[in-house]
Write a structure and sequence with these properties.
Elements (H helix, E strand, L loop, with lengths): L1 H22 L20 E11 L3 H8 L6 E5 L2 E4 L15 E4 L3 E5 L5 E4 L3 E6 L4 E12 L4 E9 L9 E8 L4 E5 L1 E11 L1 H8 L16 E8 L3 E4 L7 H8 L14 H28 L10
Antiparallel strand pairs: 1-4, 1-5, 1-13, 2-7, 3-4, 5-6, 6-8, 7-8, 8-9, 9-10, 10-12, 11-12, 11-14, 12-13
Length: 301
């Protein structure tokens, strides 16, 4: 009888263990996934051609050429001024009414995580009969990822052509404005905000201006080609990919919300395990009922 009870107890214990194991979440034993892009090699790309278009700040240009300052500007080196072109609505076209630097050189990572594109030449502003001078020269674009970069400038009150100290003048918001594929890189209307260092440089030693960190300047444009690598695919918002165009061409109805999936297999197996436990318990109780009534000992007459 004792052996029988031990067997039944063993059955109950085994069924309980099996049921608990089967009801455990499947994800507990899943292997961790590799991070996206892990193990990829980042290539260095040599800049073959590059142009930079930037207008500094339209209000400043208007002030310099206005009646109060009565001044203007001169460009030198690889810098030129792009005269305004108007659209059919009379608005100034993107990439015009600003300064352009050409013949950019440098090196960038294929992912744009690092790299610099440097330009030569500058713009010298003057006004108030020589009482105001501002020289911005030798700009460079420094990348810190596909979404962020910096505009480096030499800002000084020196005459045209004289070098100044280069500073990280402004932070560039490249998110949704940069596009790259193969050997082509473009940045369209990147937001430019002065850094504290840039604001101090534009204000000058005599605090001639009222620039502050975070102040938004004119948008910035870059066009470049590279050699020696393939740039990673980056799509700007205003430059949709072919797949995005195909999706837009065919309306897609909203999909109904998916109901949570019910884990039927573990539930069924767990139910079977519970049935086994119930049967084993019944057998144990039945065994006790049969052998539980022990006849009283016989007495001798």
């Amino acid at each position: 009888m004792r052996n029988k009870r031990r067997r039944i107890a063993a059955i109950v214990g085994t069924a309980a263990v099996i049921g608990s194991a089967l009801l455990m979440p499947v994800s507990a034993s899943a292997a961790p996934a590799l991070a996206e892009g892990e193990g990829e090699t980042v290539s260095a790309c040599q800049v073959e051609t590059a142009t930079l278009n930037w207008g500094l700040k339209q209000s400043f240009r208007q002030y310099i050429t206005g009646a109060i300052a009565g001044g203007g500007w001169e460009v030198y080196g690889d810098a030129t001024y792009v005269t305004p072109s108007l659209t059919e609505t009379g608005a100034v076209e993107d990439g015009t009414d600003l300064f352009q630097w050409s013949s950019g050189t440098g090196e960038v990572a294929s992912t744009l995580e690092t790299g610099t594109i440097a330009f030569a030449g500058g713009v010298h502003f003057s006004g108030h009969d020589g009482g105001l001078e501002l020289n911005i020269a030798n700009p460079a674009i420094e990348f810190e990822g596909p979404d962020t970069g910096y505009l480096l400038l030499e800002v000084s009150e020196a005459p045209a052509g004289e070098a100044g100290t280069q500073v990280r003048a402004a932070k560039l918001d490249l998110a949704e404005n940069a596009a790259a594929s193969g050997q082509e890189l473009s940045i369209m209307r990147a937001t430019v905000r002065l850094t504290a260092e840039g604001a101090a440089a534009f204000n000058g030693d005599t605090d001639r201006g009222t620039y502050v960190a975070g102040e938004e300047m004119d948008p910035l444009y870059v066009q470049a080609t590279v050699t020696g690598c393939e740039l990673g695919e980056i799509v700007a918002v205003d430059q949709p990919s072919d797949s995005a165009e195909d999706t837009a061409a065919t309306p897609i109805s909203a999909a109904p919300e998916a109901e949570p999936a019910v884990p039927w297999v573990p539930i069924i197996i767990g139910g079977v395990a519970l049935i086994v436990i119930g049967i084993a318990a019944g057998m144990l109780i039945a065994g006790r009922g049969k052998g539980g009534a022990t006849p009283p000992p016989r007495t001798q007459d």
